Amino acid sequence: MAPENSKGQYPPSDEYRETAFIKSAEEFNTLYEESIRDPAAYWAEQAENLDWYSKDWKEVFTWDKKENRFTWFKGGKLNASYNCLDRHVKNGKKNVAAIIFQGENDDHVRVYTYGRLLYEVERFANVLKSMGVKKGDRVSVYLPMIPELTITMLACARIGAVHSVVFAAFGAESLYNRVVDCTPKVIVTSDGNYHAGKTINMKAKVDEILEKGTTIEHVVVVRRTGIETDMKEGRDVWWHEEVAAVPLNCDPVPMDAEDPLFILYTSGTTGKPKGLLHTTGGYLLGAYTSFRNVFNYRPGQIFWCTADIGWITGHTSTVYGPLALGATALMFEGVPTYPGRDRYWQVAEKWGVDIFYTAPTAIRTIRQSGDEWVKKHDLSSLKMLASAGEPIDPDVWRWYHRVIGGGRCPISDTWWQTETGGPMIAPMTGAFDLKPGSAMKPLLGIQAAIYDEEKNICAPGESGNLYIESPPPSFARTIWNDHKKFVETYWTAFPGHYLTGDNARMDEDGDYWLLGRIDDVISVAGHRLGAAEIEAALISHPAVAEAAAVPMFDDIKGEAIYAYVTVKDGFNGTEELKRQLVDHVRTTVGPIATPKVIHFAPGLPKTRSGKIMRRILRKVAEGCRKEEIGDTTTLTDPGIVDTLIATRML
Ligand code: WT7
């Protein structure tokens, strides 16, 4: 067992160190110094790990700081699906498992070798082609965690179409906003999905948005649950019928490194979700490199990331990272608590998972259920654990290490974002003595820094805004249809430095500690939700005049939603209305956005210019007393604060 040392840190065991990509802090430091002395040279060297049709880039990296446009390997040609499939098939991995699919029902299992996956991708790429999808066209994907999701993404990549996956648990309104923005020709969905023993109709939500009017001409429907499904003649087709009717072969299209690979939406500080655009060469290289560096993956190992592919974590850690490397990834459709609270461990034991990657919220849920659920299973196959999505509390970290990892598995706490495409700050687990709760150091080729409001570098121990100093290859290039917003959101606070939106501090050893968001983004169970999106949903209810959503502490979800609502004249803040509002948010945004508290307020604290003072609303939600709230003199009606405190809901 790797013991905790006298400083409360966790060094890797010698046995683990042996198998790691980087085996000591000295080795890391040397490589790191070299990688940031000339990042373009470092990334050009890494680019040798991908298969290119041509490496005719004039410059590895260009950065127009005035327009905030940057390119990596522009002029180079490659195809992401070729890199994730064909090259492994050619290199002796035809019969190696690429995806192990474990359905919610334990009997629903499918294993795709690299050879079989390539075959499925080629066929579905031909289906897309038969629908007139061409290079640059968008394809929306609204599928549960089933292999057709990965197949669709790679089929798009194969013919140069741009996929835009929407998380399957998003409601019709959220789906609609994401679809109208990227104007797809085709949407791929399923009849329904399984969730914690229930069957949910997905196709009905697609029908609902299509009625409102979109650019979608074709709907491809995967038969997953067999539930009754309305199919509209001439528009809707079944996946299995289409793939049976097309030719088997489809050559990959050589793409420029800077050609778009996908758009993925994320919540920001306004109601409109931001469609982050990722490109073929840079994103894929980032996914490959971070996967190799962070997870110390060895051939034959089984890697399991529990995140849904509807989020960036799933894009990079279940699809592009493992497949670019030729690894075996487990894809899991279910939830951690169904049919039993040991579902993850039963699946990990069943498949002999080597590397397990999840979010702190899942660990907290599982920890709360009690150790006996874990102890029922033999988890000796586990070699390494990882965490992402929100800060991991040191106590939860130690529990994860001791109970899940049996005290022998190092934990990599990986910090990243939809925007960064792949991990940016994460410990090299074979090289460092790990500190519970710290993401430790930026990865090779990545430069981070923490600045205060005056743009001075923060001293060790001081917290400030986390920036990434120059855009690495995996970064999003722009916001689809809105480059102005891209510039405003990320590059304006400190021109030439990327603003992450996170608070962080560095300790005396130069290790990073992430402290949460500084903007109006609420992280519910690691899912990023914009306050404005929830507010827009509340306001769309006929009884609501005004609404403000802020985070509140939740011991399982990390943060939960606390919503202040003022009702219109003629309405009363009744329990019945509360229930209606909660339901309304669940159907428009999705169940993840369920408010924990609805606080009916006669008014909201506003400045004279009419801006809602969220700082105050947050403090009230946290349970602060009047003295702790700070300055309220700029408010039009300072008395509202007393009313809110007096009527605070718990
Ligand atoms: C936000 C990005 C892991 C990528 C998936 C989430 C928070 C992410 C960590 C971590 C502390 C983290 C940040 C970030 N976050 N990882 N290891 N420690 N906070 O991508 O949905 O774009 O959310 O998640 O606040 O800004 P996302």
How would you characterize the overall build of this protein?
This protein has 20 helices and 30 strands. Strands 5-4-17-16-18-19-20 form a seven-stranded mixed sheet, with helices on both faces. Strand 1 and strand 2 (69-72) form a beta hairpin. Helix 5 packs across helix 6 (147-159) and helix 13 (360-369) crosses helix 15. It is globular, with a radius of gyration of 24 Å. Bound molecules: 5'-O-[(S)-butoxy(hydroxy)phosphoryl]adenosine. 5'-O-[(S)-butoxy(hydroxy)phosphoryl]adenosine (WT7) is lined by residues 266, 311-313, 388-391, 413-418, 439, 500-502, 514, 517, 528. 5'-O-[(S)-butoxy(hydroxy)phosphoryl]adenosine binds next to helix 11, strand 20, strand 24 and strand 25.
Topology at a glance:
Layout: H1 14-19, H2 25-37, H3 39-46, E1 61-64, E2 69-72, E3 77-78, H4 80-93, E4 97-102, E5 109-113, H5 114-130, E6 138-142, H6 147-159, E7 162-165, H7 172-182, E8 186-190, E9 192-195, E10 198-201, H8 203-212, E11 218-222, E12 236-238, H9 239-243, E13 255-256, E14 260-266, E15 274-279, H10 280-295, E16 302-305, H11 312-325, E17 328-332, H12 343-351, E18 355-358, H13 360-369, H14 372-375, E19 384-388, H15 394-404, E20 411-414, E21 448-451, E22 463-468, E23 478-479, H16 483-491, E24 498-506, E25 512-517, E26 521-524, E27 527-530, H17 531-539, E28 544-554, E29 558-567, H18 575-588, E30 597-600, H19 614-622, H20 639-646
Parallel strand pairs: 4-17, 6-7, 6-8, 8-11, 11-12, 16-17, 16-18, 18-19, 19-20, 29-30
Antiparallel strand pairs: 1-2, 3-13, 4-5, 9-10, 14-15, 15-23, 21-22, 22-24, 24-25, 26-27, 28-29
Helix pairs in contact: 2-3, 4-5, 4-6, 4-11, 5-6, 7-8, 10-11, 13-15
The structure holds 5'-O-[(S)-butoxy(hydroxy)phosphoryl]adenosine (WT7).
